[in-house]
Amino acid sequence: MKLWALSDPHLTLATPQKVMHVFGEVWRDHPDRIRENWSRLVSPEDVVVLPGDISWASRLEDALTDLEFLHRLPGTKVLLDGNHERWWNTLSQVRAELPPSVKAISGDHVEVGSWLVFGTRLWETRQIDCDALVAWNQSTDKRPDKRTPEEDQRNEKIFQREIARLERCVQALPNRPWLRRICLTHYPPLGPGLEPSPASELVERSGATTCVFGHLHNLKKAPGGRSRDLFGTARGVRYVLASADHLEMVPVLLDET
Ligand SMILES: [Fe+2]
Ligand SMILES: [Fe+2]
């Protein structure tokens, strides 16, 4: 049984007017490429975690088209909400509509296969700086250095709230020594230098072996145009950036039992 990750698929089946390749050629026909790569790699008994930015839909009833797309792919899927999840009502409303092979978490956990999967979205904060990794697009991005002090203050408030949610989520984890703990966050819980942050301290105390996240897009390439190896293992936790464009729409293998 294998555990895979693919974050930020930004699915557009429910919103075909949303043209993703304005964000780069890597996004051209991305649902088709996700389906091909996923179907080739993932078996029905496997688990795939998707930590946020799942669908461009605005309403839950519209997002069902994208959720059905995921359901038809092999494996059990675990979703976390990202900052683009306008369709994500309350967790109980989302859970009531999910197709059978799709599960959702948000500040709580789910037991699936050999894993105890938990986590929260987190948020933008000046305390975790990943700006140097991103090749900013003048026409589509709002650069963090253009934020006003008021926006910074609002973001810090939300980040603190998310930290408190993660703390409660970790405290509520059941004692299941036979399950490996996997933490999902949408925003990176630490910077590329792996220096500790309030979020990574909680992740590392939680007993998680791996923490997976996304949110970062359009990352600077290594010489030769290849995606760079980013993040890595710190203080016993493997930190994995799984944004779909960074992975070129190919799910990344996290664990195998
Ligand atoms: Fe995203
Ligand atoms: Fe995001």
Account of the 3D structure:
With 257 residues, the protein is an alpha/beta fold. It has one domain: Purple Acid Phosphatase, chain A, domain 2 (4-Layer Sandwich). It is built from five helices and eleven strands; from the N terminus they run E-H-E-H-E-H-E-E-E-H-E-H-E-E-E-E. The protein has helices at residues 30-41, 60-72, 91-97, 149-171, 198-205, and strands at residues 2-5, 47-51, 76-80, 102-105, 108-112, 115-120, 180-185, 210-213, 232-234, 237-241, 252-256. The chain has a six-stranded mixed β-sheet with strand order 5-6-7-8-10-9, with helices on one face. Strands 4-3-2-1-11 form a five-stranded mixed β-sheet. Strand 3 (76-80), helix 3 (91-97) and strand 4 (102-105) form a beta-alpha-beta unit. The chain is globular and about 45 Å long. The N and C termini lie close together (5 Å). The model has no long low-confidence stretch (mean pLDDT 95). Bound molecules: fe (ii) ion (FE2) (2 copies). Residues 52-53, 82-84, 186, 215 line the site of one fe (ii) ion (FE2).
Number of helices: 5
Query: How many independent structural domains?
Result: 1
Helical amount = 10-25%
CATH topology annotation = Purple Acid Phosphatase, chain A, domain 2
Q: What is the mean predicted local confidence, pLDDT? A: 95
For the structure shown, list the relevant keywords:
single chain, alpha/beta, globular, Purple Acid Phosphatase, chain A, domain 2, binds fe (ii) ion, six-stranded mixed beta sheet, 5 helices, 11 strands, 257 residues
List the helices and strands and how they pair.
Elements: E1 2-5, H1 30-41, E2 47-51, H2 60-72, E3 76-80, H3 91-97, E4 102-105, E5 108-112, E6 115-120, H4 149-171, E7 180-185, H5 198-205, E8 210-213, E9 232-234, E10 237-241, E11 252-256
Parallel strand pairs: 1-2, 2-3, 3-4, 6-7, 7-8, 8-10
Antiparallel strand pairs: 1-11, 5-6, 9-10
